[in-house]
Automatic annotation (TrEMBL):
GO terms for molecular function: ATP binding; ATP hydrolysis activity. Keywords: ATP-binding, Nucleotide-binding, Transport. The lineage of its organism: Bacteria, Pseudomonadati, Pseudomonadota, Alphaproteobacteria, Hyphomicrobiales. Pfam families: ABC_tran, BCA_ABC_TP_C. This is ABC transporter ATP-binding protein. Signal peptide: none annotated. One of its GO terms (cellular component) is plasma membrane. Gene3D superfamilies: P-loop containing nucleotide triphosphate hydrolases (3.40.50.300). It comes from the Bacteria. Residues 29-264 form the ABC transporter domain.
Length: 275
């Protein structure tokens, strides 16, 4: 226990018998054979994927494929039924969301979860304070003003978060996650509700943040143009299984992927902004 305290572990990490801070610098996030069931409903079936430091990986699939469940399992918002998720070799699945954040997993939510009555800056400061506590010097280097500027939020810094447009709230969630100095950023539908110009700006901002912090990114979105442009590798989930993975060019030519997307062509959320 003494060794863990010396390594900078928080009480929750000590309680879990794991050391999080600094354990994963430059290392991969690895999902191995993860299964997740809700009662009799098996939502994730033997899912394996990985993301290296600084890599931007996409996760696509039709509605109900299990994408958000996977992000929730990676960040321990939900437990996994079997399999595991490791960050730099340290298990993060079946721990706690606090342990995952302290280990370097930053995330956004499909249904935006901001402190709507706090200002934009205060939302980021709350996360930054947690980062300073749990990630120490890693978080100390974060420049909140620069991050707000990068995501086009400087002019709204003193606005209540709840007064922002939907697209700005989504960008604020990303800035808040970055204020923790994450090793990996998990983005659940960050481009939802954005127009083409906002989506293009978001691509640049996420790329810049990933390269600046050498931060890996796993991103879910139904906007295929956004995913194909942003990501160097894509995993395709269908009915809880990974059915394809590879570069955007490989995945978009894969007959299994084409069949899934044509089979779900009546699915309103599965679209390309180029259509
Ligand atoms: N807490 C829960 N209890 C029971 N079933 C759940 C729970 N959470 C998710 N599910 C089910 O798991 C399946 C996958 O849902 P999930 O939200 O992960 O899919 P998704 O790929 O993210 O879909 P979408 O693109 O529509 O957001 C769905 O059938 C959903 O109803």
């Amino acid at each position: 226990m003494l060794q863990m305290k010396e390594a900078g572990a928080t009480p929750s990490q000590v309680a879990l018998g794991q050391t999080a801070v600094g354990a994963a610098a430059g290392q991969s996030l690895v999902v191995t054979n993860v299964c997740k069931s809700f009662g009799g409903l098996q939502v994730l079936k033997d899912v394996s994927l990985d993301c290296a430091a600084g890599e931007i990986v996409g996760l696509i699939g039709p509605n109900g494929a299990g994408k958000s469940t996977l992000i929730n399992a990676i960040t321990s918002l939900m437990s996994v039924t079997s399999g595991e998720v490791t960050l730099g070799g340290v298990r993060v699945s079946n721990t706690t969301p606090q342990f995952c954040a302290a280990s370097g997993l930053g995330r956004t939510f499909q249904n935006i979860k901001l402190f709507t009555r706090l200002t934009v800056r205060q939302n980021v400061e709350v996360a930054h304070t947690s980062g300073l506590r749990d990630r120490g010097s890693l978080s100390a280097g974060i420049d909140i003003d620069a991050l707000l500027d990068q995501f086009d939020l400087s002019r709204f810094a003193d606005w209540k978060a709840g007064a922002l447009s939907y697209g700005s709230q989504r960008r604020l969630e990303i800035v808040r996650a970055l204020a923790l100095a994450p090793e990996f950023l998990l983005l659940d539908e960050p481009a939802a509700g954005m127009n083409a110009a906002e989506t293009t700006a978001l691509i640049s901002a996420v790329r810049q943040a990933s390269s600046q912090f050498r931060c890996g990114v796993i991103v879910i979105d139904h906007d295929l143009r956004f995913i194909v442009t942003l990501c160097s590798r894509i995993f395709v989930l269908d009915a809880g299984r990974i059915i394809a993975s590879g570069t955007p060019a490989e995945v978009t030519k894969d007959p299994k992927v084409i069949e899934v997307y044509i089979g779900h062509s009546k699915n309103k959320k599965t679209k390309s902004r180029e259509e």
